């Protein structure tokens, strides 16, 4: 990773009574500090607010700080929460490249800047979807900089790849539909600048990453918890959904067999659980023993 500048201009502001979508914010929101990190030719916007133990929330592919607002507000009641946008997402700038390694460098740049801020303790690293995979790879390479991991519907060592030749045309069409839908959010805090091909290429790369991720877990000596969806591909009994869901559960079962200390919680939801079940996710985090949850006396 190359960090061009990390002067991170910080702006402290009282949290507005309305969020970016015009909805009322939760009571108890405190001052939000915003700063930007410039590295590798991109600008990464970072927000920090709340009180309690430090926590970094890493978004996934096609999700932004604005998408994760409900979960962020809930977590800020009990944690000092840092959120950010990955390159090409939200208020971050576009980039020439969108690979797993590039996104990992974005996370590393944020964590390096937090190290410069002198946090009282190492932060808990919480990742959603692709963000969970980034969290595992980052923690494997920098174990002393995190207190533990909470992985939300990602970083799953599934025994079979999701995108096979048989389903590739359907995946390509899905990515094209997604890119078309995202056109409507251009210029907003929810925008995603990646093309359909870039989204498809990343999903193919993630399949490869997850086929090798068990080795990463072996090198992590921090507490790890998983919050997973029971029907990540939806609850249809037709098409590829049943196979996808079975593959998803088999990956978690495989991981827990090899690493019995990893705790797995299941929510009756699909892969959108971080948006549909934010209160439940926040409560699981709060109730977790050790660094993620309430302080232990």
From TrEMBL:
<dbReference type="InterPro" id="IPR050266">
    <property type="entry name" value="AB_hydrolase_sf"/>
</dbReference>
<keyword id="KW-0378">Hydrolase</keyword>
<feature type="region of interest" description="Disordered">
    <location>
        <begin position="1"/>
        <end position="27"/>
    </location>
</feature>
<dbReference type="InterPro" id="IPR029058">
    <property type="entry name" value="AB_hydrolase_fold"/>
</dbReference>
<feature type="domain" description="AB hydrolase-1">
    <location>
        <begin position="54"/>
        <end position="165"/>
    </location>
</feature>
<dbReference type="GO" id="GO:0016020">
    <property type="term" value="C:membrane"/>
</dbReference>
<dbReference type="GO" id="GO:0016787">
    <property type="term" value="F:hydrolase activity"/>
</dbReference>
<dbReference type="Pfam" id="PF00561">
    <property type="entry name" value="Abhydrolase_1"/>
</dbReference>
<dbReference type="InterPro" id="IPR000073">
    <property type="entry name" value="AB_hydrolase_1"/>
</dbReference>
<protein>
    <submittedName>
        <fullName>Alpha/beta hydrolase fold</fullName>
    </submittedName>
</protein>
<feature type="compositionally biased region" description="Basic and acidic residues">
    <location>
        <begin position="15"/>
        <end position="27"/>
    </location>
</feature>
């Amino acid at each position: 990773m190359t960090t061009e500048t990390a002067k991170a201009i910080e702006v402290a502001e009282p949290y507005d009574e309305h969020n970016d979508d015009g909805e009322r914010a939760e009571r108890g929101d405190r001052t939000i500090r915003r700063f930007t990190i410039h590295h590798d030719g991109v600008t990464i916007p970072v927000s920090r607010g709340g009180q309690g133990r430090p926590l970094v929330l890493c978004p996934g592919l096609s999700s932004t700080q604005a998408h994760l607002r409900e979960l962020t507000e809930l977590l800020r009641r009990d944690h000092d929460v840092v959120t950010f946008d990955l390159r090409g997402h939200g208020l971050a700038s576009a980039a020439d490249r969108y690979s797993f390694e590039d996104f990992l460098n974005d996370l590393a740049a944020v964590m390096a800047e937090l190290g410069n801020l002198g946090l009282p303790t190492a932060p808990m690293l919480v990742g959603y979807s692709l963000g969970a995979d980034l969290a595992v790879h980052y923690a494997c390479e920098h174990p002393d900089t995190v207190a533990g991991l909470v992985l939300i519907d990602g970083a799953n060592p599934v025994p079979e790849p999701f995108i096979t030749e048989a389903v590739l045309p359907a995946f390509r069409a899905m990515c094209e539909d997604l890119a078309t839908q995202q056109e409507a959010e251009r210029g907003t805090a929810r925008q995603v600048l990646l093309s359909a091909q870039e989204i498809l290429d990343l999903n193919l790369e993630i399949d490869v990453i997850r086929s090798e991720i068990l080795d990463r877990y072996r090198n992590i000596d921090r507490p790890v918890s998983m919050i997973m969806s029971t029907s990540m591909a939806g609850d249809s009994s037709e098409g590829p959904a049943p196979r996808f869901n079975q593959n998803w559960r088999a990956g978690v079962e495989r991981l827990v067999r090899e690493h019995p200390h990893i705790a797995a919680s299941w929510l009756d939801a699909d892969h959108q659980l971080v948006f549909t079940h934010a209160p439940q996710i926040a409560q699981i985090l709060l109730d977790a023993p050790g660094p993620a949850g309430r302080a232990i006396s």
